[in-house]
């Protein structure tokens, strides 16, 4: 129970005691009727009086509504009737009365029983009743049902803590900047980034932290975000020791309950390493402080006979009124409700007045004097007398912060759900509890319910599970963090997925470990690019030892097939009509037959269309592609379900085809096609260079043979007259300088022998 509620109950206690005193002094019917109205109107509260032994002497309608027994059933019965069996055994009813008698009051925060045997969480107090002379008359107990509110507040705190811990592990700069461009929140990563404590950044202006030049450059973008626009861009972010790092920066407007932007969330991700090597998992921290406090409750009393509206101090404060401001339904309540909610609230109240169902509604108010907009939760019930509605009483509660916190939690949950990283939570026993959409997609799971069937270790390849259980989890428990490169397994395909895995403990508000969280990065793309790079290096090295063009083509085919995990690859020359291909040899995986020999293109469908123009033929599935689906049998017979034909062009004409085959359907990704084209072009260039070099050597040899066969003395000289070649048997010295050089590019001379 909040302090405001306790104070209100104490005030109600004093009022009741004063009323009892007045009734003793004045036995007239009017005060007694007023006392009965007060006692009977508080239907949201159980008000019970007992004698000194704890037997019920009075039982108001609120007690009947909350506990289920009527006054006739309970008067004379002990209050232990609605205590739980275990509390009765423990002696709590007696302990409560003894504490109230000794100290003046006793808190009642525990489970109680209703007439139907169900339990509810009660919140209230027990206080002694005394005569004007100070003699003990018994006790007054006031309580209310807080079951739903207690469960809701606990769940909200749990969700907030879990989400806060998860985002706390993300290594991005996350801050909140208000409309005055002042940092109101910075996460711990700011300390690492700038190399100084967060206290030197928090509550400072942006220009003081990032410098005047960067501030002026960012100012127009921040202004757009404060106007309500989501902003994302790449730019240099000041770093510690005067350096800067290329970063991805986002400005996300934060909207208040009324929809206005009161500041911006800033997310800065370091992308320098990602742009350079796409190597390291980027971690991000996010601690968005969502304050959820249970607000005090105000009480109102609307006299339907006189039209008088009575508000307590708390209700007045929620509507921004002073103690002296007059209140009425038309003059204070309706004008105080936000214009957009006014008609709806009025309809709800009017419908509830006179109804036995009451009402429960939320609406916004704008304080008359302070102008503050608040969200209130209001409840009300009609009090009937002799079948006539005479009063409408109820409570109002400020839920502004709770609603704002829920909206922030939803935004935070959306941020986690939209992340491209694998983000998950597991309980202390290792059972998965949460996995975002990107994570489920990475490991081939269709739903969160499916993910919750597995333990943490189940997500990994068998060879990595011991590392997780014996190294990662113990390290997370003992040191608070573990990271390393491991492999997930895809539950749908069984394929291994290389990842950079992080794991950290999730703690509750008291610091106790309640489970584990992870923010994990998929390394598949990086590993693929590394394999392509290594394959190109290997290809270049192996080309050095090739002595024939066919050998060069075979090396290229083998490198492609091994790197991409294919069944067969080869190189074949084609005739001028592009009707046949002659395959001298091909590379095949173990157990796959060779297709070396002569083949007709037309026997295998439209697998040559576009080759003459230099376009490759790419078919992921020969049974579905229209070029081969009409008769895929010949291809399937030689173990081809997916294929690529890459033309090798010389002087604008196709001279050969480099082909790739696989027995499975293949997804020919853009990066794989680029790798294939790269190998094909390097193969073509290497073959062309090899042939050019062979042609040059052949020409030189023919020239030498010709020169040796003629009877003249023949030599060749540089423009300066120095000889660089002469026929065998020529009497001229190699270092002799020819006379009469005209400064040309060189000369070939001869003379009769």
Automatic annotation (TrEMBL):
**Domain PAS: start-end pairs:** 47-88, 284-356, 408-480
Q: Which PROSITE patterns match?
A: PAC (PS50113), PAS (PS50112)
Q: Which Pfam families match?
A: GAF, PAS, PAS_3, PAS_4
Q: Which top-level group of life is the source organism from?
A: Bacteria
- In this chain the PAC domain maps to 106-158, 229-283, 359-411, 482-535
Q: What is its EC number?
A: 2.7.13.3
**Coiled coil located at which positions?**
267-294
Stored SUPFAM superfamilies:
GAF domain-like, PYP-like sensor domain (PAS domain)
UniProt keyword annotation of Phosphoprotein present: yes
What is the name of the protein in this document? histidine kinase
